[in-house]
Write a structure and sequence with these properties.
Strand content: under 5%
Shape: globular
Largest sheet: none
Order of helices and strands: HHHHHHHHHHH
Number of strands: 0
Helix content: over 70%
Number of helices: 11
């Protein structure tokens, strides 16, 4: 018993050290964003602010505000649409297997391993043809298409854990393909939607390459605005840190409130494929 307590104490100590190391950059970002410009220097970067100043936060919001809302308009519909398409794909591939379904599943998964840079020029050409280049709807379309492989994988594994007897019972009651999906499968899909929601929200909100390539001002999301502030000729460290802090808040909030469901949803269906 004493050995077990000692091992547990050492484990907690080790995890605490890793957590402190991991959070050190976050600490510097937070304290720097609350300092005035005159109070920032390299020798005092670890010190707490002597006088808390919110001017950098106000300045950052003035520059980020429109782009922040662009990210909201982009991320929410792209997350919802890609999750719904992934749920329908996963339902078909897990419960209505057809000849060649494994091949179709394999081809869909290939999309996960194609680098963004490799498809950038074809994507821009397609968006130009569709008259969506430079707009938020065009960026939504790109993120939905790129999110389909991972959402399909998650839902396919999630639905594989649902007993086939429930599907057969639905058929006996007269429900068809969409009826079973609507009234039996969807009500059981909360954990799957939480997982894909967190994943897609984080990926889309933090994406920079598609954001800077597909959209033009004033339709660019917050990640592009943060980089523009960092690349300005006059370096205001407190404003840069405040803008980085603001840009990261939505993903932190989503994970803090829904994070406990994330691992649970990922493990659902992991023992049956």
């Amino acid at each position: 018993m004493a050995v077990r307590r000692l091992n547990r104490s050492l484990l907690y100590l080790l995890l605490t050290i890793f957590a402190v190391l991991y959070l050190m950059p976050v600490y510097v970002v937070a304290v720097t964003s609350l300092k005035s410009g005159a109070a920032i220097n390299l020798s005092q970067m670890w010190d707490l602010p002597r006088h808390i100043s919110f001017s950098s936060l106000a300045t950052a919001w003035q520059k980020l505000g429109p782009n922040f809302m662009n990210s909201v308009y982009l991320t929410i519909p792209a997350t919802v649409i890609s999750s719904l398409i992934g749920a329908m794909n996963g339902y078909a591939l897990a419960k209505w297997r057809f000849k060649g379904s494994n091949t179709v599943f394999f081809i869909i998964l290939l999309g996960m391993f194609i680098p963004y840079q490799a498809v950038l020029i074809p994507v821009l050409r397609v968006l130009d043809i569709l008259h969506l280049y430079g707009s938020i709807p065009g960026l939504i379309l790109v993120n939905v298409v790129y999110g389909i492989p991972i959402t399909t994988l998650i839902f396919r594994n999630f639905y594989a854990a649902i007993p086939d007897e429930m599907i057969e019972a639905g058929k006996i009651d007269g429900a068809g393909y969409w009826g079973i999906f609507r009234y039996i499968v969807l009500p059981l899909s909360a954990s799957g939607f939480v997982v894909t929601g967190i994943w897609q929200f984080t990926q889309i909100w933090n994406n920079f390459l598609f954001a800077v390539s597909v959209t033009n001002p004033p339709h660019q999301p917050v990640t592009v605005a943060v980089v523009n502030i960092a690349g300005s000729q006059t370096i205001q460290w407190n404003v840069q840190m405040a803008s980085a802090l603001m840009a990261s808040i939505p993903t932190l909030v989503v994970y803090i409130f829904l994070g406990k469901y994330f691992v649970r949803g990922l493990l659902a269906g992991s023992v049956k494929g």
